[in-house]
Amino acid sequence: MSKSVVIIGGGISGLFAACICAKRGFKTTVLSYGQGALAAAGGIIDVFGYDEKGKLIHDPLEHINSLPSSHPYGKIGAENVEAALNTFLKLSAEAKYPYKGDVHKNQMVPTGIGTFKPTCLTPPTIDGDLINHADRIVVLGFKGLKDYFADLICENLRRNLPKSSCEILSTEILLNFESSSACRDISALDIARKLDTHVGYLNFREQIKSYVKGKTLFILPPVLSASPSTDLLDLLDIEINAKFIEVSAMPPSVTGYRTELMLKNIAEKLGVEIIEKAHVFASEVKDKHCSYVMTQGFDRIRKYSADHFILASGGVFGNGLVTQMGRMYEPIFNIEIDVPKNQQEWSHQYLFTGRPQPFATYGIETDNTLRPTNKGQLLLDNVYVVGRALAGYDFCFEKSGNGVAICSAYHAASLLE
Amino acid sequence: MLSTEVVIIGGGATGAGILRDLSMRGIQAILVERGDLGCGTSSRFHGLLHSGARYAVKDKHAAVECIEENTILRRIGKHCVEPINSIFIRTKEDDESYEEKWLKACLDAGISTKALSLNELFSLEPNVSRNVQSAYMCPGAAIDSFRLLWQIFDSAKRYGGKTITYHNVVSIDSSSGRVHGVTIEDVRTHERKKIACSYLISAAGPWCGEIAAKAGLSLKVIPSKGSLIAFNHRICHNVIHRLHKPADADIFVPHGTVTILGTTSINSSPDDNSTSQEEVKSMLEIGKATFENIYDYRILRVFAGCRPLYSADENVSGRNASRDFVAIDHEKDGLSGFMSVCGGKFTTHRLMAQKVCDIVAPKLGCQKHCQTAEIPLIEEPSSDLINRAKKVFPSYSSRLCQDRQGPERFAKILSNIEQNPNQGELICECENVTKAEIESVALEPTTHSISDVRRRTRLGMGTCQGTFCTYRAVGTVKRLKCDWAEDTSSLFKEFLEARWKGIRPVMWGNQMRDVELARGIYEVSLNINHEGEKDE
Questions:
Q1: Mutation test of the interface with chain A: which of B275, B423, B429, B512, choosing the one with the most A Cβ atoms within 10 A?
Q2: Topology of domain B2-40+146-220+323-363, per CATH?
Q3: At a CB cut-off of 8 Å and minimum separation 6, what does B332 contact?
Q4: What ipTM, to 2 d.p.?
Q5: What is the pLDDT of residues A35-47, one digit of tens each?
Q6: The domain spanning residue A308 has which CATH number?
Q7: Of A147, A324, A396, the CB nearest to B472
Q8: Which among B476, B508, B521 has CB closest to A324?
Q9: Which residues contact A80 (CB under 8 A, 6 or more apart)?
């Protein structure tokens, strides 16, 4: 009988770990509760963007080689990081939603305010390179869409692309939504669903067609399909011969939602059992060995036993770590995190400074196999920590969130025996 | 050169009250404020409209003034007052003998005290500690200080009063022992200008000492810092006081969507509005006697302000110093045409202004009486306006917008939304602020930052603390091409850092989750921490 893994958490690290475990022949179960941070964060895979002094990194993999073992990447090792990211690229290609990018090269992608940010792997709808080949950039807005400002993006793109000779303009198009104060706000996901319909697509295509002149690139909110598919992109390329880059700002993130769907589809095809609304609240541990975890959701308390457990429950945002005044802990395995008692030491005076925030680096200490430790002593021998709960990195500052998630998930899943 | 009869320094409650009072008496006045109106002490308190009961035992005079002014403000500033009550509870920790003294003192001062049975109390306030021994209802209320100040300024403006914000006073100009003007400097452009005047009133609160020094005078003001904690929901429906001798952290005031707990009293410098973890800890520990589950409530942020306590006795400090105000005519110091006004309470600011103007007006040859107590600050919107608004404003926001903006601006905002329904989109979902309202305030000449917009709309003051609305507000004001809104990144940083300042000392629990989300949006997705250029 094959060995079993229970993965706690259905975000990007949990789902990716599940794919790898299943591929390796483990009987894999994902216990998920709520929506992973993917739907808030977005589907681009930042690997390493800025060093601790805020200097832009051009080759993320090379930089990872120089990181200390206190950083998750330092524990995982550059070789495994490369393998993890290449595996992700391969899986996405097989799922017909091919990510693009080179682990040795950061690309600059435009943001929801017309600035640029470094990232490594991008979904098909966010190919930063296209900006370099456009003669004309049209920033598209949609009437009634909340949380998107085409003219702001346009103005800042003009400022931030000083050497560019290409023309940059913005415009708004109108899709028919019932719009009144009594209706709810229109989000990018609503428009994406609209464009997935034949009528919606035709309406969209006809309205933007006249803007295509020469090598035209459209910058638009994440609306090119609600599912992980390149069909719309391919169709537009053929029918109006234009390129597209999606930019996003506020949750819900459609790009993250697509990536989540892609990973779920892959996992399910590989036979992973995904159980939703399963809130893991406790574990049974004897002699550093976990025998089962317990869930409570909409029905009775259930126990899930396994040979291995992967903790992918997220950081503070995802409730994988809980904080109180001067205290942080992991609530399932009751792991106390060593944090300053004085809240003043958790952060810098300013939120946005040229250095990482201390509190962002608080998390679960592990050994190089990602199993939790306390002052070097192994706490649990069959529990592996992946993703945001890991200590030693500020993903916001260095731009490494989804990268650490994917690489730690891959590393943990590869270590299981 | 500008010229006026009176220059008032300080755009807080005292200055605002004096400006309105003088203007209504027909005296020309210009008020100068170094920042935005109401950005100092007058907005950095718990927003309590005192009934006077808190002071009844110690200071009958103050208590009487409070209850009288309370009644007046409920009438003239009704759009700024949440007409709730205040409940005084005596817990097991509080001295039982004080209760009788207090009841008698309230009776003497004319403050009603309705005894509540414990059952009545718990049905009104289910979160209150079951250790309460007795409870009384008094006519205290919650008051929105930002809103009240702006409505006072708007009212003063109708009578000819002028305000100049974001200007520092550089010097007080005098000759032959008489003040004849001030020199002010624009904090942005550093451009200087002179204002000639016959009389100067310093209403600079805790900064009164600094202002007096500019005229070479010495004035002893004790800046006493008070810290406050804002919780993200209404813990109580009425103001909850402890029935004991006034002390730290014994008042909870529900305001709109939040509750504010205050306060402390620590000698400090006037510019210090920081709060330490020790202060938060001790306030929560005291607050526990009122609400047992206080540690489970989500804290949004902390803030602090400096009271300008004046005492002729240099050894008096903190809670022992009188909360009464003083008007010091500097003629006694050899400089005529100059008065400093400090101390006092927000609740009684109007009365203070009246007393000051009763002294100053005759000096300027004006015999008119004070009218500030009779005439409402703003007019009521017409029923036609209200009915039209109901059709186009998103839920609840119509009433809030009326109260915040007054009938004239409200009418403009309404017609903006009527013409373009998209302008009714909510930019701030916590405080129900529409795009049209944001635009209206952003275009006012007194607005120079998103924080200025916040003080007049409550943008970003609710649960999300700017996480969602900052992006929307920046996108909205950018479109207006205001001169202060050119650089996107500094617009974001100015607002988010101001919010961060209050979150930082209490960043745990759900509020820390919110910080993670905010960083995810602004730092990861929008990369505002780095310059925007594509290539290095």
A1: B512
A2: FAD/NAD(P)-binding domain (3.50.50)
A3: none
A4: 0.96
A5: 878 888 889 999 9
A6: 3.50.50.60
A7: A147
A8: B508
A9: A407, A410, A411, A414
